[in-house]
Specification:
The complex is a heterodimer of chains A (264) and B (155). Chain A is an all-alpha fold. Chain A has helices spanning 3-34, 37-41, 43-53, 58-82, 89-127, 130-136, 141-180, 184-194, 197-225, 230-259. The chains are: A mainly alpha (264), B alpha/beta (155).
Chain lengths: 264, 155
Amino acid sequence: MIAPLRVIARLGRYTLNGVSRTGFAARFFLAILLHSGTAFRRFGLTIREIYFAGVLSLIIILVSGLFVGMVLGLQGYETLETYGSEEVLGVLVALSLVRELGPVVAALLFASRAGSAITAEIGLMKATEQLSAMEMMAVDPVARVVAPRFWAGVISMPMLAALFSAMGIFGGYLVGVVMIGVDEGSFWSQMQAKVDFGEDILNGVIKSVVFGVAVTAIALFEGYDAPPTAEGVSGATTRTVVTSSLAILGLDFILTAFMFRGVS
Amino acid sequence: MSRAWLDLWVGLFVVAGIGALMFLALKVGSMNTVNKADSYQVIAHFDNIGGLKVRAPVKSAGVVVGRVTAINFDDKSYEAEVTISLDKRYAFPRDSSASILTSGLLGEQYIGLEAGGDSLKLANGDRVKLTQSAVVLENLIGQFLYSKAQEGAPQ
């Protein structure tokens, strides 16, 4: 075959692969939802996965939240002080954490801490033919292995994001009020006056639920689709982190455009 | 790890997560959105609203008594039509006046509600007749320059 035709043929192969992978991902996602019965009937399975995905991510989430909040406090104070309005520091820290940083950074950390682990685990289960063994014993691997992990991720994510935001606000309080000496009363009262429960906090929670679905679904799919070799599993783990990080940032932009348009 | 420990850790995690959410809801945020059920709407017309925005507070004697819920343009009178949602707990006389004020020099704009002396109270759908527009800095400077020019004009 002549060279230009070969290039076009390669393009065609990539397109076909992409389409079939997307189709497989969609059917896989649907299968998770359809086989979720076991995840709730035998809730112990899901609790086990919440421990691995949620509880073990706590340390990194809490420490990152604290430091992000502290940095926000320092940097925000620098700028606000120029305009003599350092009492709105609480508003700055709380709004940026609750609306954006809490859900997004917590989800990014979750993707690299728990998402990669899920992919590696399921990829190895597939490579060592544990999933096939389950099918042999008439146990549905999607219901027994995949669905509990999915729901564990969806349940853990909003809690981790809320903890991240709360910890960040505490960090901002430590730096702003305790260290620099912004007035404590105005720090909290300005925050309460400007942060709305429905508009800001609930929208943040909705964001984190969406991120939880996206990250866990991508991690599970990459693991389930991984080539059953050492190389394949490592490639899938990398793809999980890259794809879900990009998905989080893209989804965040779309959700923000819908949620906060027209809110001053 | 035994099942009991697992349950305990996950339980603690869930309690901490809900606790963080409660902290955000109670200590950080507040239910600013005025509930439709315990508020009444009044309308005020302004020549110029300046930088007033929807959800801006409505204050009387410095206390937040309501929120701006809608801002529209009335093409009959060419004025801004501002819908204000007031807390049902507070009643105001019919002849109260509304003015657009600024908190601080660079702060946000809000509506100040000054009580009048009428014995009838404002009710849902009423219109606040006495209004004062926002101060637009450019107009103010223009007026100042104009009056200065008048002073210096040869007689």
